[in-house]
């Protein structure tokens, strides 16, 4: 009996030293710093992609382009961005988000600098601007697939909503700071100085990412054992977190299961609609306020901030709400019902805002519509991890590609619709697409994971 009791006590006491060790160990939250830096990179990406909208009047005046040619320049970025989404996703899976993001940021910084170097009076300005913006799109194509691949390896499933909300809030911050900040630089130093500023901060941010980021928690010397266990136990799929395993060998892409998912097509439709609507604001809202609503340059810059402030706030709220509803209800409610409802409200605000007689009221209502759109943003990226797990970088790249195709279409179609009909028509078309996006979410199933 004594031996049995002794063995039983030893068995009961065995886990205690491990638990005490983990409890006493320095607890780290490295993943939150790295996700915050993805927020910074996301903000810089949108600063670089929307700076041409703010500088459009000066670029148009210097090179004699016109709205239709400006639309081609906006679309060139999105064609490059969309066309390289799948290669970017494959690269992120095979070579890891650390290297891929660092190289991508350096490339888009170079493209931004080349824009500033275009000489005044050059005869082929339109062609060169299209080529440079196309190159910028190639560089920036890595930001979303690589970020999503990073999140899939570093973030527990119960934190996916808020983390994606934080990263994607960089869209609103970068786009929101762009109008007043670059307008001030343009007024003081000219539009080229604004592009030099955008290029330099991108290079600086990429250096920080290279120094501090790692592809997996197991490779990071600053991650405690407790944080590593917390991450591993909470991932949406089982992960081999060995630092010795290379990204290319430890993460095989599940091409067949990915391409056979009906959810993929539905999410691509939904994100096409999302991208179309978002790029009405990214490409044309500044000029819409100036040309259709009669705002002067400074007023346009400040009122153009409103949609992006709303995007930032609603992106964070949407991420937190997604996690809360997922815990309290289900993945379907937390991801799909939230996204569907937000797109429905987006349609309503776009209709009422575009038809408001008061210019200030119109700007506010349309800004809230942009915010409502971004309530759904976290869901698109979280559900990519929920469904695709270790192959989420590729899955997300396909979804994101469709969104950028939508953006490329609106960049060129919006001025045509405004000229052929009036400025209400672009927002009416965007509202109709918001309704289609809302319906597509109703038959997505994030609870049926590929790696389950």
What is the string of SSEs from the N terminus onward?
HHHHHHHHHHHHHHHHHHHHH
Largest sheet: none
CATH top level is Mainly Alpha
Counting copies of identical and different chains, the oligomeric state is: single chain
Structural class: mainly alpha
Q: Name the CATH architecture.
A: Up-down Bundle
| CATH fold-level name | Growth Hormone, Chain: A
Number of helices: 21
* Termini Cα gap: 45 Å
Care to describe what's here?
The chain is mainly alpha-helical and 452 residues long. The protein has a single domain (29-238, 252-443), classed as MFS general substrate transporter like domains (Growth Hormone, Chain: A). It is built from 21 helices and no strands. The protein is globular, with a radius of gyration of 23 Å. Residues 1-24 and 242-250 have low confidence and may be disordered.
Features:
452 residues; Growth Hormone, Chain: A; 21 helices
Quick synopsis:
This protein has 452 residues and is mainly α. The chain is built from 21 helices and no strands.
Task: Provide the fold topology.
Elements lengths: L1 H12 L1 H10 L5 H25 L1 H8 L3 H17 L1 H11 L1 H20 L8 H16 L2 H12 L5 H30 L1 H22 L12 H10 L12 H4 L4 H5 L2 H30 L5 H32 L2 H25 L3 H17 L1 H12 L3 H29 L3 H17 L12
Helix pairs in contact: 3-9, 3-10, 3-11, 5-8, 5-20, 6-7, 6-20, 7-8, 7-9, 7-11, 9-19, 9-20, 10-11, 10-16, 10-19, 15-16, 15-18, 15-20, 15-21, 16-17, 16-18, 17-18, 17-19, 17-21, 19-20
